Amino acid sequence: MAWFKTQKKPLTSEGRRDLPADVFKKCDGCGEILYRERLVRNLHVCPDCGNHFRMPAACYVELLTDPGSFEETGADLVSDDPLNFADLKPYPTRLRTAKEKTGRNEAVVTGRARIEGIPFALAVMDFAFIGGSMGSVVGEKIARAGRDALERATGLVVVSASGGARMMEGIFSLMQMAKTSAVLARLHERGLPYVSILTHPTTGGVTASYAMLGDANLAEPGALIGFAGPRVIEETIKQELPQGFQSAEFLEEHGMVDRVVDRRQMKASVATLLRHMQAGWEGRD
Amino acid sequence: MAAHAPFERHIVEMENQISKLRELASKGGVDMSRELWELVAKLDTLRRDTYRNLDAMEQVQVARHAGRPYTLDYVRGIFTEWFELKGDRRFRNDEAIVGGWARLDGRSVMVIGHQKGKDMKENLRRNFGMPHPEGYRKALRLMKTAAKFGRPVVTLVDTPGAYPGFGAEERGQAEAIATNLREMARLRTPTVCVVIGEGGSGGALALGVTDRILVMEHAIYSVISPEGCAAILWRSADHRNEAARALRLTSSDLLSLGVADEVVPEPPGGAHTNPEAAMTAVAEALTRNLSEIDGADPEELVARRWAKYEAMGAWQETAGAGGAS
Ligand SMILES: [Zn+2]
Fold it and tell me: What class, spelled out in words, does domain B60-310 have in CATH?
């Protein structure tokens, strides 16, 4: 919910005046000034310290899918404004701005593809679209990706990046947690594998629904993952949180994620897991 | 009633006036029955008018009213043969959620609900009705026990939200809630939820994925508190009135949005003015809803539950073929 409170890593380079931001980017991890091109080639991971920058959703799709295998679905689904919601800005204005900024209709990309030959359904969230918040369209697209997996008897992979539920859709946004979990219940019962990948940041209603329900939960190094945002917790307990609290590594240590996986090994890891879990694909490598 | 909301001021003034008159009448032997009778009738009208015209934030205040019946009041008031079951078998017994066997209209049911405290001491023990992961895990354990014996589950929702604390995060608050959502979606037994006060976000929903959702007239159900929403979207909690209105969190909103199946009427003046009447109305609604779904084929129940939740939301498909709502 607190989608801009949790945004710790600014996307744009604060850079020095003499370094054009479109060519260079400063690493928050080690302070190194990096060639943007080199960073992109390295999957937005700092070659020096391994710091994982946020990666655009389209790049994540490319990362996890075999070349040319991705077929996007549901791209034309758009948010309604069921509550006629307006805060300082009307909700439709926020949607329009997000669409212009991302070139996308909503905060998740979905489709079907192959990964090392294995067919699967994929959803990748886009934090740049209203903080990756989950409204009706995100819920519906995740649900459809799940149904697609059910229909074709494949696995499902969801890459999460979200500040939580989208307040501007009120109770409907809350109900998307139940909706997506209901579809995952069906996958669970059919014995179809679901791999959840948690990236920076994943909090609120998305963590408290599909992001935590993987047969395997993988997390990117350093990702902030939690139910409540750190500021809300600090306000509640009137104490500063220790370094590394709610980090991917913290969650691994506390038994909430199976493994912290470097982005550069993500595709191979997901493929291995699907080979282990997806019927008909065991022992094929 | 010690605490009252600002909009209740006139009601409280008239109540005081009535009790003074009563005192006078009993002391002085003066016949004031006519004046009294008129005042009582006036008070009744005032209550009805006030409570019919509450704005969204006033509804929130009523939903949070400390005089409302809480889960254990319902347990004592409308159920019999209560047998509390404690603990998640993993960590501890979270007293922000209570649960156990109970009987309603002859039927054995598992009752599970958030529990706020009646005073500061009890609130510290019950964490103001804000559960930790172990509370949700206890709730799930009890739901599975109910399903094992083919008994319905009744959940009573009344929480500001899941507790956002250190230990809660450490022990997997998000995982506990998520697991409840998935497991409630596939529970092979009839389930009914009543929002009896505050339906606070994911911490409420974790007891709320049910065949039927009933909401009491002055209860609320929201993705975020009006204060939290105002602080984020308006950048100041001072805008909670606007936020409360915008969120559409009242019982009539929830009914018209198709999230609530039924609104349970409260006595004029709200459940806190006449808890007995409020609880009786809940008992009636629960009994009726349970008899409608109890005995149904569990597979059919679950299929219908999936269909209901999977249809929730509002979207459009731009390439022709209209969306759902
Ligand atoms: Zn670096």
Answer: alpha beta
